[in-house]
């Protein structure tokens, strides 16, 4: 049985995750805890997440839907240490694969091929984010250790992110 009733549901699901990621990178960059490549990459990744929010919001609005809003707050502390660069990198290393898995899992539910193409363009950028974070954490390790990334069901994604989601606005 399908989790989503229509493409707007799928897009809002993605937008919820993009809001979360955007807020995380904004918080991390402004924390003063990052330096060097971590600060540079988190700034770039945050700009990408912001662009994903704008693009998905526009797509939902253009399709006659109501885009979900960012949460009033997020509880990133449940994912780990927010006080060090290593802690922030570890949290990013958890969030990015969830984004990839969410897009991969939701893609079969998308009916409009234009939305599917847009989702495909976002998921490949999310996968790059995951690789960048891995490379910063372990510069001498393979940042792309697997040939395939697992898809996640909406239920698996929600189980992973619900503790982080604060109240809706």
Query: What does the largest sheet look like?
Result: none
The CATH architecture can be named as Up-down Bundle
Q: List SSEs in N-to-C order.
A: HHHHH
The shape, in one word, is globular
CATH homologous superfamily (4th level) name: Ferritin, core subunit, four-helix bundle
Low-confidence stretches: none
* Total number of domains: 1
CA(first)-CA(last) distance: 30 Å
Strand content: under 5%
Round the Cα radius of gyration to an integer and report it.
15 Å
Indicate the CATH class.
Mainly Alpha
Specify the oligomeric state.
single chain
SSE class: mainly alpha
Descriptive notes:
- The protein is mainly α.
- It has one domain: Ferritin, CATH 1.20.1260.
- Helices cover 63% and strands 0% of the residues.
- The protein has 5 helices and no strands.
- The chain has helices spanning 7-30, 36-62, 85-106, 113-137, 154-161.
- It is globular and about 40 Å long.
- The mean pLDDT is 95.
């Amino acid at each position: 049985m399908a989790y989503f009733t229509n493409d707007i549901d799928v897009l809002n699901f993605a937008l919820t995750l993009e809001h979360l990621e955007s807020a995380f990178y904004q918080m991390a960059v402004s924390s003063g805890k990052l330096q060097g490549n971590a600060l540079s990459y988190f700034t770039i990744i945050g700009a990408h997440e912001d662009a994903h929010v704008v693009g998905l919001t526009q797509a939902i609005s253009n399709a006659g839907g109501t885009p979900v809003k960012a949460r009033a707050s997020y509880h990133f502390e449940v994912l780990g240490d927010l006080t060090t660069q290593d802690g922030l990198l570890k949290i990013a290393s958890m969030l990015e694969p969830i984004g990839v898995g969410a897009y991969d899992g939701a893609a079969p539910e998308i009916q409009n091929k234009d939305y599917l193409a847009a989702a495909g363009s976002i998921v490949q950028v999310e996968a790059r984010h995951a690789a960048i974070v891995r490379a910063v954490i372990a510069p001498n390790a393979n940042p792309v250790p697997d040939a395939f990334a697992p898809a996640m069901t909406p239920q698996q994604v929600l189980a992973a992110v619900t503790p982080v989601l604060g109240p809706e606005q």
